Description:
The protein is mostly helical.
Amino acid sequence: xxxxxxxxxxxxxxxxxxxxxxxxxxxxxxxxxxxxxxxxxxxxxxxxxxxxxxxxxxxxxxxxxxxxxxxxxxxxxxxxxxxxxxxxxxxxxxxxxxxxxxxxxxxxxxxxxxxxxxxxxxxxxxxxxxxxxxxxxxxxxxxxxxxxxxxxxxxxxxxxxxxxxxxxxxxxxxxxxxxxxxxxxxxxxxxxxxxxxxxxxxxxxxxxxxxxxxx
Length: 215
């Protein structure tokens, strides 16, 4: 198979056109290593290698596209790439490379995810743990990061804050004390707070019964 032309796409990549009309996107480094030149008649073995490199190029580009939008766990990114019908073996090669170069880091992902959920969504630890497990983060790593990030007093204050707003909403809807308490309890549990924190918040709100600072 003869190479018709080699055109530089950017500093890191080139476009190679073969005589059958196929176009391959390859790294400049690979072209340099293999000594490819216009007019070369490449072997079938090398052609297959180049096709694989071309597929890896597109897998990397799609990976960077996803990662440019937001952080992903390794499993989360792998699932999305699998849905694109890329070769499973090549996906794993690319993921390993991304991890090695620190574009993927489940520990950093878990820590930032937990921080965001606590400070911006005021989620409880149980819900955060469930969400991270679904994203393929190991339980041991989740618990390590939760222990590092979560402050019990702050968790209680977050639960109290969203509890006040929810309780005010329930009262406006005309629920009696018993139904309000049950619905408030269920709401806090759904937000990921444990039994003890939920119970403390409900007791505090029903004793204080103050909503002046609720917006």
